[in-house]
Automatic annotation (TrEMBL):
<dbReference type="InterPro" id="IPR054335">
    <property type="entry name" value="DuOB_dom"/>
</dbReference>
<dbReference type="Pfam" id="PF22557">
    <property type="entry name" value="DuOB"/>
</dbReference>
<protein>
    <recommendedName>
        <fullName>Dual OB-containing domain-containing protein</fullName>
    </recommendedName>
</protein>
<feature type="domain" description="Dual OB-containing">
    <location>
        <begin position="9"/>
        <end position="219"/>
    </location>
</feature>
Amino acid sequence: MREVIITDLTRFSTNENVCTAAIDVNTGECLRPMPYLKSAKCEELGIHPGAILRGDLNFHTSPSSPHVEDATYTSLTFHGACSGAQFKQVLENSLTNSVSDGFGIDFDAGQKHIPHDQIVNCSIITVKILPNELSIHEDQFKPGKIKATFTDGSGHRYSYLSITDRGFHDYAKSHQNDGRLHEVTDLISRQEEVYLRIGLSRVFQAPDGRYGYWLQVNGIYTFPDFHDEIRTYDQ
């Protein structure tokens, strides 16, 4: 039986399924419950970032790299929300200095994916960035799509990454629809600390032939403040 805190609740193109990731409060291990949870099940269990769950979660015996966090699960139950301080500590304990350090890959300028034949030992990391180093904006090539651009602690800039953080995406999208997307970045810039959960997609081939695992922003967490409708933890 494990006790975990949900750190990632990511979206797909449809709302039927969601991908979740959690960190074991005792071991610090990151686990991704598989198969994917249904959106209805998440609502039933009260699953949002910061939710405390208990259940039997076990890593797959033969995980497929880089998604070594994949885990089976049974008997998941909701046990309330963690505090903002506890959630922040979970993120701190999982920190890596940069995206390159976290995945063990030296990214070229503009590179957004890891080739499928490159060995990677994980698919989810946490980085901490300066609030003014993150911007949320419309995709210049796909109007209507919201993307994130940030610079990590090593000074490397990652541009126009997909935002798969479901709660944050919906929040930003509502502001975009109202013509107020700049308010999202303004809110972030006023915060003291920003943590990003950076994940790798399942293997995917782009129209130009690039084949591999694509960087995406699984979670955006700011302290001390954030919009209270999309987070469970009490700031």
